[in-house]
Amino acid sequence: MSFEMEWTPEVRESLREALADMVNPVEVLVFVEEGCEYCDATVEMIKVMSEESPKKDGQPLLRYKVFYRGKDDEAFDKYKVDRVPSVLLLDGYIRYTGIPAGEEIKGLVETIIRISEGESGLEEETKQGLSKLNGCYYIENVVTPQCPYCPYAALMINMFAFEAKKQGKACVTADTVEAYENEDIANKYNVMSVPTIAINGNVEFVGLPYEEDLMNKLFEVPPKGPCDEEECFVRP
Predict the structure, then answer these.
(1) How far apart are CA 140 and CA 185, in angstroms?
(2) Do 167 and 93 meet the contact criterion of CB atoms below 8 Å apart?
(3) pLDDT tens digits for range 34-49
(4) Does any domain span residue 1?
(5) Strand partners, 230
(6) Whose C-alpha in 59, 88, 132, 209 is 20 to 30 A from the C-alpha of 142?
(7) Residue 148 covered by a domain
(8) How far is residue 149's CA from residue 207's CA, in Å, rounded to a whole number?
(9) Is residue 223 part of a domain?
(10) What is the rounded CA–CA span in Å between residue 151 and residue 10?
(11) What local confidence, expressed as pLDDT, does residue 228 receive?
């Protein structure tokens, strides 16, 4: 896979227009290491998004921190980040493993906006269901940059994680995994088509699921452990 993004004035303007609906600050954590093929491009992407986000009291509403393996290992351990680049939101409950490039930028931008607005956009029945979950669930969404449906799958699982945390059930971790950069994960799940969605280490959907079906599946799948931050952040 090759990835090049040219941040032209037109692209920046599109980002600025898309992020204009932000209301409250959102923090993005970026995990990288020296020599990583896509780490610099990932940092640049988040930097540009921050620059084009709305300002409040002179500060961008999209704020970010960069952590380097070997220098910030305490943060890597705290959030159980095992691969670079990784992009984390919502204190680590929403994450992108691999650069969120191509079509994935759409889902990332919409995720940021919804977190900023404080509204997941999920159905009321889904919100109620998430409030009843016990134990933690790790949802992996295996994607490729060219896939048109993958950003919608990412947005859905991201909002499940967001709403669960809002409901006081910080037990859903949403991880969108770039297949080309993480071939071992794609091979583990025998991914032939994307998006492929696994819950707690087992493939449950190939293709974009309905919101109701994803919610029902969470009640069918046994939790991977107690609702504990350390357990919830560990990849199955």
Answers:
(1) 10
(2) no
(3) 999 999 999 999 999 9
(4) no
(5) none
(6) 132
(7) yes
(8) 8
(9) yes
(10) 22
(11) 78
Helix (H) and strand (E) counts for the chain? 9, 10
Residue-wise DSSP of 69-82: TTTSHHHHHHTT--
Q: For residue range 85-136, list pLDDT tens digits in order.
A: 999 999 999 999 999 999 999 999 999 999 999 999 999 999 999 999 989 9
Domain of 55 in residue numbering reads as: 9-232
Domain CATH code at residue 87 = 3.40.30.80
The model scores a pTM over 0.85: yes
Residue 2 placed within a domain: no
List helix spans (H) across 118-220: 124-130, 150-166, 183-188, 211-220
> How far, in Å, are 73, 156, 206 from residue 133 at the CA level?
32, 17, 23
Tokens at 89, concatenated: 């939101």
pLDDT at 5: 75
Q: What angle do CA 62, 64, 65 make, to 5 degrees?
A: 170
Burial 155-177 (b: 16+ CB within 10 A, else e): bbbbbbbbbbbbbebbbbbbbbb
CB 7 within 8 A of CB 48: yes
The bridge status of strand 196-199 relative to strand 202-206 is antiparallel
Side chain identity at 108, as an amino acid letter? L
Write the secondary structure of 209-232 as one string of H (helix), E (strand) and C (coil).
CCHHHHHHHHHHCCCCCCCCHHHH
